[in-house]
Amino acid sequence: MKTEEYISSGILEAYALGELSAAERAEVERNLVQYPELEQELLQIEEAQEKLLQKSAIQPKASVKENLFKKIDEKKPDGKVVSMPVWDSQISFWKYAAAASVAIALVTSYLAYNYYGKWRSTENNLNELVAQNQQIARDYNTVNQRLDKIETDIKVIDNPAFSRVVMKGTQNAPDAMAYVYWNETSKEVYLSIQNMKTLSQENQYQLWAIVDGKPVDAGVFDANLAGLLKMKDLTGAAAFAVTIEPRGGKPTPSLETMQVVGNVVKG
After folding, report:
1. Which of 192, 211, 255, 263 is 20 to 30 Å apart from 98, CA to CA?
2. What is the pTM of this model?
3. Which stretch of DSSP H or E encloses residue 210?
4. What is the DSSP letter of 73?
5. Contact 227, 257 (CB under 8 A)
6. Is the CB of residue 242 less than 8 Å from the CB of residue 221?
7. Which among 262, 266, 265, 173 has a CA at the least distance from the CA of 209?
8. DSSP character for 33?
9. SS3 of 171, please?
10. What is the Cα–Cα distance from 236 to 234, expressed in whole angstroms?
């Protein structure tokens, strides 16, 4: 088996997202046992998904939890503890984000009703309640925007028109890794950071495409990237690489600072 082609096919992402049939999962698990590099790749994919969810999460106020449990206690006639369903560890991270959005919507509805009653009983708290409702609305919109971003990223990752290029670390950064998703027809390029260190304010990473043996600027970026980042459109790429450059980038790469590099695997 050519492990690079197997990795580039995107089947490990589908396995991590729980989107494969039982037969397909069994085949992947056999390959994971036989090829250690596939198991290492799967670990990196799962870590990247976990980081994405952590960056997308919004910490609710402590009072939200207190009010919700108080409301639940008022509604339970028998005092029994309600068992919560166990989450499947392989649930798709975009479905998890959707569930979080729905949960916040329910919390918002409850708080809006509660605040309305307080407003009717006293006008002294009106300004405070309006401000709190506005904050809830902003939080809700933020969750929806992040959910839309995750769904857009998934459409790119699952689109067979996009080739995934694995860029592995060089001697300058052995543990670094990033992916490029490139659509040769539409010329679209998206970048996904898996493991790259944070730079000083004076520097940025710069993505390069090797076209006809020459480096072509594909855009600059910082390490604090969540999800996919749209880079410059290009065509005819044979490979991609990332170097460290002064903030804003340079017209030619500083090859001595190269962090990751990977060849385009033709289908």
Report:
1. 192
2. 0.49
3. strand 203-211
4. H
5. no
6. no
7. 262
8. H
9. coil
10. 7
Q: Please state, as a whole number, how many other Cβ atoms lie within 10 Å of the Cβ of residue 52.
A: 21
Q: Check whether 28 has a pLDDT greater than 90.
A: no
The helix-helix angle for 93-121 and 36-56 (nearest 10°) equals 10
pLDDT at 127: 72
pLDDT for res 84: 46
CA distance 231 to 218: 6
Tokens of 9: 């096919």
The DSSP secondary structure of 109-129, one letter per residue, reads HHHHHHHHHHHHH-STTHHHH
Tokens of 1: 């088996």
The token pair that represents 122 in the structure block = 């006293």
Q: pLDDT band for position 202 (50/70/90)? A: very high
For 210-237, write each residue's pLDDT tens digit: 999 999 999 999 988 878 999 999 999 9
Q: Which helix (H) or strand (E) holds 249?
A: none
Q: What is the distance between the alpha carbons of residues 246 and 253, in angstroms, rounded to a whole number?
A: 11
> Does 256 or 43 have the greater pLDDT score?
256
Interhelix angle 22-34/36-56, rounded to 10 degrees, is 120
pLDDT tens digits for range 43-99: 888 877 677 666 655 566 666 566 666 666 665 555 555 454 444 444 444 544 554
Residue 112: which of 127, 128, 132 has the closest Cα?
132
262's torsion region: left (phi>0), alpha (psi -120 to 50) or beta?
beta
Cβ-proximal residues to 5 (8 Å cutoff; 6+ apart), any chain: 265
- Token duo for residue 231: 């880079």
Backbone φ and ψ of 23, nearest 5°: -65, -40
Query: What are the structure tokens assigned to 135, written together?
Result: 């904050």
CA of 232: how far to CAs of 185, 194, 219, in Å?
14, 20, 6
